[in-house]
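Incident log, structure service

09:12 report received: a user says their structure output differs between two submissions of the same chain.
09:20 pulled the input from the user's history:
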Amino acid sequence: MVSAVYKDGMGYQENILPMKHKALGYDVDIITFDQGGEASHSCDEKPPYTYMSEHDIPVHVLAKRKAMWMDRIPHLRTLPQQIYPKTVGLCETLEQIAPDIIFVHGIDCKDHEEVLKYVDHHPGVRFYADNHNDYYNRPLGGWKRKAIRTLFPCKIGQRMALKARKMWGVTPWRVQYLHDVFGVPKEKIDLLVMGGDERYVNLDNRDAIRKRIRNKYGIADDTFLVVTGGKIDKAKNTHLLIEAIDRLSATNDVHLLIFGRVEPNMQGLLPTDNKHLTIAGWIPAIDAYDIFQAADLAVFPGTHSVLWEQACASGVPAIFKDWDGGFCHVDVGGNCELVKDITADKLYHSMARLIHDRKAYLTMLHVAQEKATREFSYMEIAKRAVEYNQFEGKTTL
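09:34 re-ran on a clean worker, output below:
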């Protein structure tokens, strides 16, 4: 985890996968680097040092290389990462740990030359890497695309593909990005979805969770509860969802619960006196599972976030924005609806159909609870990430 800083206490893939791999019986180590206070773990020691994570996993914190003059210029800040390693002592740390399996989180980092050096010296190591870049969060066109592919060491993706058993994209769009931008052969690429921690999904206790959460926010049990959340900004199209809920509420008992951090560009744009709307604000990551299980429908009409997959893992029917198939993996056979060209009117009609067509809703709920919860279980994803069933044998949850 040297493409970015590892942070304790989060519900991200890099937090949950190591925990699940440990539960599968592996000895697990995490390698990251010090970012001058950005990491969540506070330590008086100067890197390199090692501490135990919240999941009792050793976290090796490397020193960051000395900043260059380009680091101080916003438009050039990303270039040093492409040309020089971020960290000091990565290969030496790998030699000390002596891993049998390496999983690299995020491939666009010059430090991974050190990983390849280790793999070259230890050909029996199983090596995997994943990609979280796509054309929205890392747009590349014209000279930038040419530079990434031919001039800068992001071409390392091609060299990693020669050594890796598998290069994972975490969405269909990010699978495509691996091939189009990094030039990874298609036969080396596959989809490894993000998901949710199945420990917090309890369908047998869903009625009790539903009652507790609804009582907390003053929402009746027979009210059709729609939820959305995450970083609330204009790109999430939350304002369009609120408009659709306002129209629905004229003839239906419906309520919208929004959780997450409201960004400055949305301050003042969210109504504060709407009786059909509750703004819960920031909540701990694990609390989102209970909110999803208390809801009748999750709606995410804008940009992608890990909450999409977490909602699927929680067994709640959902509506998502259709990014021309870029995130179509969330549909595992009818657990959700993908809506193109999001408008308040389209959201209104999609939600109204599910409210009024009980059979259609129950079909969606069945697929969400019976299939999506397993497809997006992080235990199953952890097995797939390192080909556990092929090498270590088959187990069941």
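09:41 both user submissions now match this output. Likely a transient worker issue. Closing.
09:42 reviewer note: The longest strand covers residues 58-64. Residues 13-195 form a domain with the Rossmann fold fold (CATH 3.40.50.2000).
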